[in-house]
Amino acid sequence: MRKFSYIMLLLAVLGLLIPGMAFAQEAATEAAAAHSAGGLESFAELVFGSGMVKWFKDGGWAMWPILIVAIYGLAYVVWKFISLIYAKINLNAFLAKIIPLLEEKKYKEAAEIAKATRGPIASIIYAGLLKADGGVSTVEKAIENAAMIEMSYLEKGFLELSTSITLAPMLGFLGTVAGMISAFDAIAAARAVDATIVASGIKIALITTEAGLIVAIPVQFFNNIFVTMVDAMVIDMQKATERVIEAML
Q1: What is the distance between the alpha carbons of residues 213 and 164, in angstroms, rounded to a whole number?
Q2: How far apart are CA 16 and CA 9, in angstroms?
Q3: What is the CA 247 to chain-centroid distance, rounded?
Q4: For position 74, what pLDDT does the model report?
Q5: Is the sign of the CA dihedral 69, 72, 74, 77 positive or negative?
Q6: Nearest residue to 119 via CA among 222, 227, 239, 234
Q7: What's the pLDDT tens digit per position in 129-169?
Q8: What total number of domains does the chain contain?
Q9: Which of 176, 229, 231, 241 has the fewest beta carbons closer than 10 A?
């Protein structure tokens, strides 16, 4: 009987302690989350400034997808810039090495130089020189096939950049619509038109539109630069092909 009483007393104590422990754990979790959010906000203020962080928070929920698109677009801008810089070579210096060898019919030596040179121009010339034994027409055909493959590599990333350019303003416009809905809801709730009532919703609308344009404009600028760089590289590929074919005739 006494053992049963002890068991019941223990269960009663546990019944009182467990909810308290659960509440304490939940409070600790919420405090940790708040502290983490506060730390993140403090870090953002340190990096970007308190004004920029306040501007971001005032834009509402639409600022987060716009931020994701901005990071996505920036990543592809950096990657595309590095890849195009790596692919660019000095065309005249490259041709000055291989043209004399081609004129002397030293195709293997010229192919080795092309193989050791980076970039799509050297790659298509190398692909053509591998078929040098088949004649000029075979070389020209091999260069054309290799050029199509290299062009597909050069065009990588443009779809992702176009996606960023398109999505950022669309998300900004979505935030604009949400802000205007919020403003009209405030008018309906107050049953009166007052600038202070609608100011918050209109502010959200304008900030999200601004954020979308801030993301899209520089990405569009770099996209245009990259298109120009690819066009120049295609012209260099054509020039190199013509010089190589002429040297082999």
Answers
A1: 11
A2: 11
A3: 43
A4: 95
A5: negative
A6: 234
A7: 998 888 888 999 999 999 999 999 999 999 999 999 999 99
A8: 2
A9: 231
Q: What does the block give as tokens for 62?
A: 């639409």
Residues of the chain predicted below pLDDT 50: 1-36
DSSP string across the chain: -HHHHHHHHHHHHHHHHHHHHHHHHHHHHHHHHHHHHHHHHHHHHHHH-HHHHHHHHHT-TTHHHHHHHHHHHHHHHHHHHHHHHHH---HHHHHHHHHHHHHTT-HHHHHHHHHHS-SHHHHHHHHHHTTGGG-HHHHHHHHHHHHHHHHHHHTTTHHHHHHHHHHHHHHHHHHHHHHHHHHHHHHHHHTS--HHHHHHHHHHHHHHHHHHHHHHHHHHHHHHHHHHHHHHHHHHHHHHHHHHHHHH-
Of 154, 185, 207, the residue at which a domain comes to its end is 154
In a domain, 58, yes or no: no
Answer whether 0.90 is exceeded by the pTM.
Answer: no
Residue position matching structure tokens 């010229």: 110
CA distance linking residue 66 with residue 237, whole number of Å: 38
Q: What pLDDT is recorded for position 82?
A: 94
Let me know if residue 5 belongs to a domain: yes
Distance of CA 160 to the CA centre of its chain: 7
Torsion angle of the four alpha carbons 6, 7, 13, 15, in this order, in degrees rounded to the nearest 10 = -160
Residues 216 and 147 sit within 8 Å (Cβ to Cβ): no
Q: Which of 89, 134, 79 is nearest to 114 (CA)?
A: 89
**Residue 228 CA from chain centroid, whole number:** 19
Residue ranges making up the domain that contains 13: 1-47
- Widest CA span in the chain: 112
Any domain includes 56: no
